[in-house]
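Researcher: Here's a chain I'd like modeled. Treat it as a single chain, no partners, no ligands.
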Amino acid sequence: MQQLELQKTLDQALADQQVAGAVAMIGNADTVLASAEAGFSDPATGKPMALDGIFQIASMTKAITSVAAMQLVERGLLSLDEPIDPVLPELANPDVLTGFDGDGKAIVEPAKTAITLRHLLTHTSGMGYAFTRADMAKAQGKVAPASIASITTPLMFEPGTDWLYGVSTDWVGRAVEAASGQTLGAYMEEHIFAPLAMQDTGFAVAPDKIERRVPLLSRQAGGLVPFPLEIGGGDAAEYQSGGGGLYSTAADYMRFMRMILNRGSLDGARIISAETVAAMSKNQIGGMKAGQMESVVPLLANSFDAFPDMHCGWGLGFLINPEEGPNGRAAGSLTWAGLTNCYYWIDPASNIAGLVLMQFLPFADPDALHVLAEVESAAYQRT
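Model: Modeled as a single isolated chain. Structure tokens:
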């Protein structure tokens, strides 16, 4: 697609919707095809959105963490199907929540199945999110955000028997740390970010780049207002969140997606094998349905289903649509999103990858989804 077309599409989408600002980018295996920015980075000051704006990409972190884990599987330092508890003793002997007693205390019984890395990568471990499962929040009680306690939970079901989006990828990140002997950020820098020249991606924003950071907003009754939440916990975090802690830019994340389109390599740097990319891109959960997320905290997120009319699968880190999407992406595309209204898709069949980065809550905001749909539709218009 042409640069001018994407810019016109994004400008019009933001003119039609109550979204402060956005960055969009479309690429293929060979190059970036088009990029655009529109609106404001900070509407309070009138600061315009910039193409190199640094965003909290939230759960777009998960795909990168999944690649890091699969690198260690390739090296024999992690196993997909052996019990994970030798690597993560905290996940040994998990309990399954069966209900609550009259005092509101959780009733649990020992799980019959050990948790594996495959369960964690596919969100079939039984662990959810407190903001999507009221029973998980009740069982946890009051916990500090970004604490180990916040990702410690009884299972909602036996591992491997259902799909539930949640904290599993945070435990994948901790498995990467345990197996590699490095912090997750240091491991990713050495094995993913540096080889891919992702110079603006990490678990913190460098002081000399802080002016490029896009402030987080929240849609309130009076409009979009500042909401200074650190998704990964900031300085108070007890761990680096493999499920949602990264900051990044459109250009950096496009390099990651182009690596996937190139079956594991980019510009001569081999990140993972083509066989691993194929496994990550294949449905790994059988007949379970993936992609639906209920929300019990409307301030943070709306309920969401990327393809409500499809029975989507999940690979080793990605949602997979089994049929062509309504806005052009082919069957077998890979996708997910971030809580802050950041979205991406990777379409190997069409050799297209695209993303739209915004920075406000709640997730799955209807106006944000409209912007995404317009950008995706424009990406598939042949000229």
